Amino acid sequence: MVLLSLLSYIFVQTLGLAIAFIAAAVLLYILLRKSHSRLVTALLVAIFVGVSIFFYIPNGLPKGLEYPAFLTSYGPSPSLGLPFSNVIQFFLHFNQFEKVADIARDPNDMPPPITRTATTTVHIDITAKEVISEVAPGVYFNFWTFDGTVPGPFERVMVGDTVVVTFHNDKTSLHHHTIDFHAVIGPGGGASVLMAEPGETKTLTFTALHAGLFVYHCAEPDAANHMAHGQYGLILVEPKGGLPKVDKEFYVMQGEFYTTGTLGKQGLQIDDTGAMLDGNPQYIVFNGRTGALTSTTTNAMNATVGQKVRIYFGNGGVNLISSFHVIGEIFDHVYEDASLTSPPLTDVQTTLVPAGGATMVDFTTREPGNYTLVDHALARVDRGAWGVLHVSGPADTSIFNGVQQPMAGH
Ligand SMILES: [Cu+2]
Q1: How far does the centroid of ligand 1 lie from the alpha carbon of residue 114, in Å?
Q2: What is the per-residue pLDDT for 81?
Q3: Domain shared by 224 and 289, yes or no
């Protein structure tokens, strides 16, 4: 799998190009030996050069080589961005990466609401780890993660808390990693302090001055590239007095993955940074992979009729704005832009979640059935951006009355 990927990534087109050029050069040599006319020589050379340019040059350059070798970055640290050696290093060290069976973080995997009333010191421990897992069935990708899943762990503190972050970069990593917490006030959101080489551990202490639901993400230059590998998560800073009580809480993050292979192309896929610069992801997913949140058993989002459901929804991007919507529901409350200290909007169908932003929504379930979470730019559903909330319990025909049809297709 690895060898094939390496060949298809680097060598196949280059090899074809080389063979074609050598064959053409030999043919040219043979023809030139039989003719001593300068005109014929000039014509043959012109034909050779012309045909070469026309056929080979536009097709001969492997797409995946464009960014590291030939594309330009005006980012803060272009030389660190994506050196071509990274690609080679990846294949040379392929066996050291942990193979993760499921890259998705369980949307139920959250700390409980904070019940204390006094501020305290909270310790957060996060490890950056580069792993191999599936972004879609049979489509393998080199994820860069926090704690081995996408998104990273959901962190929960209270406004005024002192937060001590211990950040490890796993020794199997090939890259530097760090964290920019949007909940932090200070240079880089902590990124400049937490920058860690493979095997290193760094610490940061900060005070959570503002309540809100904040994105955190890797900010190692090129930050976009690290986020496009899956390095993001949410930290909730609860306001004084806590949040309104709900029965169910879920943690969902949208993200994009840019692969050299087209949508559904099986095997190990290399990151296509050219596509990232263009903003054309192959995969747009909730919690790290296609189908991560659709099952009734694995990473299941389950609720019963009458429960108040809250979704903490973040957008890791790196390029797209999400139009978050739950099919068949209306949000009772939307804490727009995840501002938890402003009055929430009420009775909302779809809400915008910017790249590097979040929202908090809640609604009460009224009817049993499947409720599909989507980015309502609905073509993205075909790229993976959907999940299902399964609601069980008695039907109320005064609200919804009809015979449900089985789901079409599939
Ligand atoms: Cu990183």
Answers
A1: 29
A2: 45
A3: no
